[in-house]
Give the backbone structure.
Amino acid sequence: MSPNVTLAIIAGALVACGVYLITERSLSRILMGVMVAGNGVNLLFLVASGAAGGPPLIGVTPKEEMSDPLPQAMVLTAIVIALATAAFLVTMAYRSFQLNGHDEVADDVEDTRIRELAEADEASDSFEEIRFTDTGDDVVSE
Amino acid sequence: MNNLNNLLPLPVLLPMLGAALTLLLGRRPRLQRAVSILTLAGVSAVAGALIWITDTHGVQALWVGAWAPLGIVLVADRLAALMLTVASLVTLGVLIYATGQDEEEVHRETPVSIFHPTFLLLSSGVSDAFLAGDLFNLFVGFEILLFASYVLITMGGTGERISAGSIYVVINLVSSLLFLTALSVIYGATGTVNMAQLNLRFAELPGDVTIGIQLLLLVVFAIKAAVFPLSFWLPDSYPTAPAPVTAVFAGLLTKVGVYAILRTQTLIFSNSPLTDLLGWTALATMVIGILGAIAQSEIKRLLSFTLVSHIGYMMFGVALATQASLGGAIFYTAHHITVQASLFLVAGLIERVGGSTSMDRLGGLAATAPVLGVLFFVPAMNLAGIPPLSGFVGKLGLLMAGVEVGTPVAWALVFGSVLTSLLTLYAVAKVWGRAFWGTPVLGPLAPDEVVADDDDARAGKLPGVMVGATAFLVVLGLALTFAAGPLYEYVDRAAGALLGNSYIEAVLSGVNG
């Protein structure tokens, strides 16, 4: 079986675009990213299923010309799941917009705490300021 | 030929039917509760029966709709049956706790009409993942439980939960995409996604193809199981959810990931255990996780970090891939599901009594709520692995397996796990000392600071149902201790079967027969 290079390249491009979008902070862009990358992965299943053929119905298509129906069944499942994903993410982005006026993913709790300390110009409890000197004796502030 | 394998779809179907029924009964909360409790009790009974069946009659496989070898196959071996039983008992306990919470809270934190159907769907997805005999069905099982978990983690849609939920949802969507990619690559390379057939066909593939696929699958499952470099999402997303939700997530969802790693490593990639890679990640998971826990002053976050850390123990067992180490990992997983779920339920009770789960605001709980002290102390000591509790038995099994292997990685894991166990003791002792004995550093919240949805006319009271449900899980954890002898023999047989061929034979006999 020789894989379909066109499909593989398109799949790669879609996944690349999707990954770029997923790294954004806004939930609606992440949603786009997941959809685009998901379609790229679905194309990979078509690459995996081999050469295109007729409908796999006994009596309609001779056995050698049939396409492989199993990957298509999987893609169908994946599409249904993608639909649910889209519905849920849109709802979540909307709710986030209702609450905050934007739909950006928040920083995690620990990062926020450290940044607040930095903005208040305070050191955390475990912070020690070290000055490196030429003599080799490092000065640690108390 | 017996017909016992017809039981296999029940753990998946019963909760789904229950979910549909509870959705219809949304306006009649009492009936809804009765339906969901009965459903999960039914699943537990079936799962218990499966333990006995798989132990006496061997592995059970059912080709659903008789589409062998193309269709969906459900398989139960000793490992799957044990996981299913522990998981369904814990879900049952948590559900009873949640119904107790509903009864008590005038201002409901969890909108009850949605909670029950979603919770049952989660249980159905977990069962499906445990019973799946092919990777695509495993993927579907994951998606069912993930979608239910997306709804549960953002329950109520408050700002805090939406932002924690966003992280959780995005991480899991990415891991699902990777899983799907892995599936397409596997299908392209072998022409099947059935795990038993994959075992045979991977043996014929060139090594570099196999290792690529194996690493891809390991990354997917390691995200779900929160294994160290991929664990950062967990402590950020779990603590904000309602107590019963966090408990069931902590107990089950990461363990489903561990189960998937255990299953694929022993079944599909039995020739390539990757002991070094998995061993070092297990060590890093244990040590870095527990160091994170020590730094926390909030009980739920602390428990989330211990959860990450103790996933390392299970990975320890998987990495060494001997019968003894796999047995230890299985025992430890069963133990950890019950212990971690009960600790999160206790954290929920602490929040009710003390109005907070921050150790800065808590103190003297041992005097105000002695029951809570007992309920916390037993699973906490169990988590730290104090003899004779089941945590000790599991750790001892893993340590003995590690010493027996005796390679540098194994010794590193042995020392790492002893250290982690000690630090776990320190972390839970810190909670005990500050929340149960000490005096609050910051003092209780001022009345106007108290969050509105924590209905405070009732704060300070411990509802009987919630305490009973927590006690049920604590007793379940103790039962694992009392039954440790027969149970350890059982997991040893389960681990032996994982290394043998019985699974493959049971699945493929349906193809030829």
